[in-house]
Amino acid sequence: MSPETRPEARVTNVLLCGIGGQGVLTAAELLARAAVAAGHDAKKTEVAGMAQRGGVVTSHLRFGPRVLAPAIPDGEADLLIGFEAAEALRWVGQLRPGGTAVVNGLRVKPPVVHQGLFAYPDDPVGALRARGLDLRVVEARDIAESLGTHRLMNTVMLGAAADLLPLSPADLRALVVESFRVRKPALADLNGRAFDAGRTAAADSLGGAGGTAGETALGAGAVATPMASAAD
Amino acid sequence: MNALTEIAAGGRVLLSGNEAVARAVWEAGAALATAYPGTPSTEILETLARYPDVDAQWSVNEKVSLEVAIGASLAGARAFCAMKHVGMNVAADALMSQALAGCHGGLVLAVADDVGLSSSQNEQDSRYWGRFAHLPMLEPADAQEAHAFTLAAFALSEEVGCPVILRLTTRVCHVKTVVAVGERLAPPPRGFIRDPRRWVMLPVNAKAMLPKQDARDATLRALAEDSPLTTELEGSDRSLGLVASGPAALSAREALPEAPILKLGQTWPVPVDRIRAFGETVDRLLVVEETEPLVEETLKAAGVAVLGKDVLPRHGELSVRVLRDSVARLRGAVVADAAPAGPDPDVFPRPPTMCPGCPHLSPFYCLSKLRRGVLIAGDIGCYTLGAGHPWQAMDTCTCMGASVTMAQGLAMAKGGEDARKAVVAVIGDSTFLHMGMQGLLNLVYNRANVTVMILDNRTVAMTGGQEHPGTGFDIHGQEAPRVDFVALVQAMGVKPERVHAVDPYELPALFRLIRQETQVPEVSVIITNQPCVLTDRHTPRPALTVVEDECTGCGSCINTGCPAIQVTRRETTTTKSGHSKELAFVRIDSAFCTGCNACVETCAPNAIVPLNPAAHPRLEKV
């Protein structure tokens, strides 16, 4: 860092959370690239290694004129993007007062819950709602499956977050679509539609009740293609 | 064409610390780069393998890796070696002796500390290797610095003639930020210089080098005092000055923007005079370092009054919150020990799991069923998860290869109630090749009785699926000679009739074999041979499902630990003997099932069947 730098300018803190294999890190990567493309300094950090095996995954994205610390200071997240309902509940305490959460209503019980060792919360979305947050709930799996595959889930979530960031939603969409056009051209347009559907769902969710959430093994499908982006 | 080299000099790209180090190693003109995979350092070599002109290669362990790099340096080339913190322990033999002789071509070692232990068995502070080995230690704070410091490390190595250590932490390795990159230099070849008095470490030669090392230490101290990598950041409040290094320096700047900071880019040798002069401009001086008090104690020994670990925690990351609260307390504020706003402790834990169809599921299921009769020494890899639920089938895990050797000690000294127990060592393919082979040789030679299970999934799975000599491919995906585990262990003296290569998906056969071999009074080796499900080598089989009406709720299948098996409802019933029993009825999430068949074999009522019977010939018997 250059000696004269000071953290005087406002930094935007985005905390993404979910389960290993859900594409949390890929989503964070795309948001980081969008922030840099918009001219910001950025830092994107994550817990990797063991946590990727179906465990808790978080990624911290910070952007602004100048970002110093690699991790979001406790309780200073502006936006929480939760890829699973109970994971959002686990990390919601990291939001600053007045922060916003956009949460996938998906409920994924881990093996320790199926083994009877721990209880999954009865209504994680309700518990989030009870905190009086600015909360948007999106049934990203239902939306993704309606478009053809659950693997579009994290593109849906990126769309859902698009209007909650100080970045241009159109630019973010273009970057997401372009990233697929480079790697998997057949899926580019589909991911564009998933992005739009997520954006619409987040807008519609304001004031609405949480939907009924599906249940799945894991981000396990997910685990079968770890780190893979939404629509592999 | 290569996308990486197309990034032109002056280009600004989003890179992790690991990617930035790799880029700089390439730019520095290094000819050879080696590593054994280890979180958080793995991606350095993975990235380097995609650059031209650098011979990037996986080594079987860190000692081998460092020695290969030393050889390249002596040949006159620039060479690089990466490892995680515990890897340096393995490489220490080579490090400590070569440090005395030094190097010829620039030699840089990157060692990545897992501050906060996200994926390691300890949290050691590798900076002590600098002090121990009399070598300079550079400590970047982010990816941009990692890039610049790597280039500086090569230059320093050649200027002083000794290896230079680059100390990274997880928050450098795995944090991406914008990095300005440069072009590749082409350092002129230096050639090998025949100099046995320097390169042959006979006692007489080594002894003669000690005064030279003293002189080198003095040079390194002088250079460290003036190092351009150490910078002073202005602050308006001179009541407290900070001496900080690594990512903690950036967190300190954010937490305490008014405090002047002397940011150390080099933490060994410690620039004592420069810190002393900085200290004279502030009322009090606080050392901010992760994780041990290396700089702090060096300063105190030199008579510089500083605060350090009396104010700050001795373990874990020095985050913005920790620094802010600690300094507030130092200034006399009452700061509540409120729970940090981290993860909500009331939400259930979600530990990492093995994958659906993981070939480690059935070995640990079998061991869990034999639990009362065996002591189980484990090792480092995905299979360390076998210590957790539902298997709880691991009694020890210390370091790479220690399953085999500690099993020998257990087998030879067990007594009392354990005397009748068999001893099993569980180790993965790559870990076996890393450090387990020597232990097996020792086991056989000393006539111990251990059943060694080599769980060969044909990859280094835990770190993301790297190649090794047991996979038949190199870091570039090119074919390479492939070790034959059966022939290898037989060559070490394990009797051919005691060596078994088995399909772990054939659960009953695996169970019978483990039971049989643990009852034999000599060394046995059981090698499981299904590939990791996350690799291309794995071929998924048609998915399974549960016939709801036939599930009796016994829960046996749940004990395989497969995450595709889900409980749909629970009931409590009373057995004939009057005990109450919990029943758990299940379904299989067929979308995630890989058809490995392990659960089918645990299901007495045959309630688990192919989702599409025609597609699953293996299960026609069901």
From TrEMBL, chain A:
Q: Which residues form the Pyruvate/ketoisovalerate oxidoreductase catalytic domain?
A: 20-199
Question: Lineage of the source organism?
Answer: Bacteria, Pseudomonadati, Pseudomonadota, Alphaproteobacteria, Rhodospirillales
* Gene3D superfamilies according to UniProt: Pyruvate-ferredoxin oxidoreductase, PFOR, domain III (3.40.920.10)
According to its UniProt record, the EC number is: 1.2.7.8
Entry keyword annotation includes Oxidoreductase: yes
Q: Which GO terms of the molecular function aspect are on file?
A: indolepyruvate ferredoxin oxidoreductase activity
What is the top-level taxon of the source organism? Answer: Bacteria
Group of enzyme by EC: oxidoreductase
Q: What is this protein called?
A: Indolepyruvate ferredoxin oxidoreductase beta subunit
Q: Which keywords fit this entry according to its UniProt record?
A: Oxidoreductase, Pyruvate
From TrEMBL, chain B:
Q: Which InterPro entries has this protein been placed in?
A: 4Fe4S_Fe-S-bd, HACL1-like, IorA, Pyrv_Fd/Flavodoxin_OxRdtase_N, THDP-binding, TPP_enzyme_TPP-bd, Transketo_C/PFOR_II
Bound how, and how many: what does the cofactor note say?
Answer: Binds 2 [4Fe-4S] clusters. In this family the first cluster has a non-standard and varying [4Fe-4S] binding motif CX(2)CX(2)CX(4-5)CP.
Q: Which residues form the 4Fe-4S ferredoxin-type domain?
A: 542-570, 584-614
Gene3D superfamilies from the UniProt entry: 3.30.70.20, 3.40.50.970
Keyword Transferase listed: no
Positions annotated to bind [4Fe-4S] cluster 1: C551, C554, C557, C603
Specify the domain of life of the species encoding this protein: Bacteria
* Cofactor(s), names only, from the UniProt record: [4Fe-4S] cluster
Q: Which reaction does it catalyse?
A: indole-3-pyruvate + 2 oxidized [2Fe-2S]-[ferredoxin] + CoA = (indol-3-yl)acetyl-CoA + 2 reduced [2Fe-2S]-[ferredoxin] + CO2 + H(+)
Q: Which Pfam families match?
A: Fer4_10, POR_N, TPP_enzyme_C
CDD domains noted in UniProt: TPP_IOR_alpha, TPP_PYR_PFOR_IOR-alpha_like
Q: What EC number(s) does this enzyme carry? A: 1.2.7.8
Among the GO molecular function terms of this UniProt record, one is: metal ion binding
Q: Name one GO biological process term.
A: small molecule metabolic process
Q: Does the keyword Electron transport apply?
A: yes
Alphabetically sorted, this entry's keywords are: 4Fe-4S, Electron transport, Iron, Iron-sulfur, Metal-binding, Oxidoreductase, Pyruvate, Transport
Oligomeric state and interaction partners are given as: Heterodimer of the IorA and IorB subunits.
What the protein does?
Catalyzes the ferredoxin-dependent oxidative decarboxylation of arylpyruvates.
Q: Which protein is depicted?
A: Indolepyruvate oxidoreductase subunit IorA
